[in-house]
Write a structure and sequence with these properties.
single chain; alpha+beta; Rossmann fold; two-stranded parallel ribbon; 47% helix; globular
């Protein structure tokens, strides 16, 4: 699992860098990303099969401790995804909430692009209440990115007007008391 995650992060980081070089700075800042954890550290120094054998032994040794804690105290679930706001060279937790949202949207769009590259088809993109948290310029940029990606996107929101720029290219539904309407 840890080796596969490292590979996925490496692919995503390479795509983010290629997009940054090709497009320059845009409305969604590029991110520097890395996975940090005990297994990732071991994988940087030794073959995956060796790390897997060591991890298996570690789990066996810690079985009683894990049972007492009612959870696994070692493993890839303890790894951290480190995200840095690239243009500002600032860790994501130290960015403003608006910068964090823009950074997250940039990561989601890059991941969707990577899936499209690897699978040959755009993924389904689900974005909850995304338009309310963006200024008009970033909203329009997001809509443009989704259209150029060719992805089917489901976006929720409580203000229909925020989606007006997409009216020509989207189906917009209203949900009221459990009923779906136009």
């Amino acid at each position: 699992i840890a080796a596969a995650r490292l590979d996925a992060i490496a692919r995503l980081a390479a795509l983010i860098e290629a997009m940054r070089v090709a497009r320059g700075e845009g409305p969604f800042p590029w991110a520097a990303i890395a996975l940090v954890g005990r297994l990732e550290e071991a994988l940087s120094r030794r073959p995956a099969t060796e790390v897997e054998d060591e991890f298996r032994a570690l789990l066996e040794e810690g079985r009683e401790r894990d049972r007492a804690a009612a959870r696994a105290l070692e493993g890839p679930h303890l790894s951290d995804l480190i995200v840095i706001h690239g243009p500002k060279n600032t860790p994501a937790p130290l960015c403003s909430s608006g910068e964090q949202k823009a950074l997250l949207i940039g990561l989601i769009l890059a991941k969707a692009e990577l899936i499209k590259e690897l699978e040959g088809a755009s993924p389904l993109v689900l974005l909850d209440e995304v338009a309310a948290h963006l200024d008009q310029g970033r909203r329009e940029a997001l809509f443009g990115e989704i259209l150029s990606l060719g992805a089917q996107a489901w976006m929720t929101g409580t203000d229909r007007e925020l989606f007006a720029p997409m009216a020509q290219d989207a189906q917009i539904f209203a949900v009221n008391r459990g009923k779906i309407g136009a």
